[in-house]
Design goal:
single chain; alpha/beta; Quinone Oxidoreductase, Chain A, domain 1; 2 domains
């Protein structure tokens, strides 16, 4: 079978749209036709050369589409089903899975580093050469074959272009606020970074009942969007101390850079909770004042994929969307066809206010 896809070779080359060979779905797998793919910060780390991954690679891991075929043994999905792509199918047996952290499945993390599906294959090739997959998915393609656990049922009523954002940014951001930061009614929340994930952190804090949500970012357009989604105050990173003189009950760093992590922790009140959900460049190191943890008794933790199994978390987000509590349409930014995937990445790198989409 053939599929057109945007191929990443190296940071100094533009994405190349080519026709790949794609294996048919095997037992336990599904064939999905992608309708929309969001450009996520993790993809940008690879494009900027901040993360090293095997190449050539199909980027993209935040997507939605329609099932076209199912392999033997798949009973949870059928052709025609609308699905959201999850990049975290869990083995269910490793130490992380047994401890309830299926989103941090150990074999899955190894597969992500290797650029493969969880079974160690990629099912993709170009002129006889293996093609790898970003985050065990590789969504910048017309078609993709994935484990059935990676295709989460969407149901009706939510456009696929909006549903794509649920696959990573929404699960990650809302989950960071609800699960990792454990935002409670009446609390004050600091959100550092108003990109795709940060916008959903703001919404997660609002839905959790936060009385004050302060969002900081150097991008004015993104800040205005955060204000429309529930932030009660906005400003530049340099204004955190003046915006929150007493600190926040909970702070969430949606960027992950050393300076934003330090800013988030400093903006947390004594006894408060700080969560880092943004992903840093490879080799980055954090430096913190030990007194933040001793004298000031702050808590610092990380969060991946919303600190929850996406298969368990998505149905709740779908309810939030259908009830009007969680906004998707407002976060959709410019859209580009597959042939212009490289332009889509440039727009995202330039700081587009909404989530940049590629529509294969």
């Amino acid at each position: 079978m053939k599929t057109r896809a945007a191929l990443f070779h190296s940071p100094d080359r533009p994405l190349e749209v080519v026709e790949l060979d794609l294996e048919e779905p095997g037992p336990g797998e599904v064939l999905v036709r992608l309708a929309a793919v969001g450009v996520c910060g993790s993809d940008l780390h690879v494009v900027r050369g901040e993360w090293t991954r095997p190449t050539p690679m199909v980027l993209g891991h935040e997507g939605a589409g329609t099932v076209e075929a199912v392999g033997d043994g798949v009973t949870s999905l059928a052709p025609g089903d609308a699905v959201v792509i999850s990049w975290a199918p869990a083995c269910g047996e490793c130490v992380a899975c047994r401890s309830g952290r299926r989103q941090a499945c150990v074999p899955l993390r190894a597969a992500i580093s290797a650029g493969t599906l969880p079974d160690g294959t990629t099912k993709l090739s170009y002129r006889g050469e293996t093609v790898y997959r970003m985050t065990s998915t590789g969504c910048l393609s017309e078609l993709t074959v994935l484990p059935a656990e990676s295709a989460l049922p969407l149901g009706d009523g939510i456009p696929l272009e909006q549903a794509a954002l649920l696959g990573c940014a929404a699960l990650t951001g809302v989950g960071a606020a609800r699960n990792a930061a454990d935002v409670r009614p009446g609390e004050t929340v600091l959100v550092v970074g108003a990109g795709g994930v940060g916008q959903f952190v703001v919404q997660g804090a609002r839905m959790a009942g936060a009385s004050e949500i302060v969002c900081v970012d150097p991008n004015a357009a993104r800040l205005e969007q955060a204000l429309a989604l529930g932030a009660t105050a906005i400003g530049s990173p340099e204004e955190v101390a003046s915006l929150l003189p007493d600190g926040a009950d909970a702070a969430v760093d949606a960027v992950g850079a050393p300076e934003t992590a330090a800013l988030s922790l400093a903006g947390t009140r004594a006894g408060g909770r700080c969560v880092v959900v943004g992903m840093p460049a490879a080799g980055a190191r954090y430096e913190f004042d030990p007194l933040e943890f001793t004298n000031r008794e702050k808590t610092l933790r990380g969060s991946v994929y919303g600190s929850a199994d996406p298969a368990d978390a998505l149905p709740g987000l779908l309810e939030d969307v259908r009830a009007g509590r969680l906004q998707l349409a407002a976060l959709v930014g410019p859209s580009y066809p597959l042939e212009e995937a490289d332009e889509a990445f440039r727009a995202s790198l330039a700081g587009a206010a909404g989530r940049v989409l590629v529509t294969p």
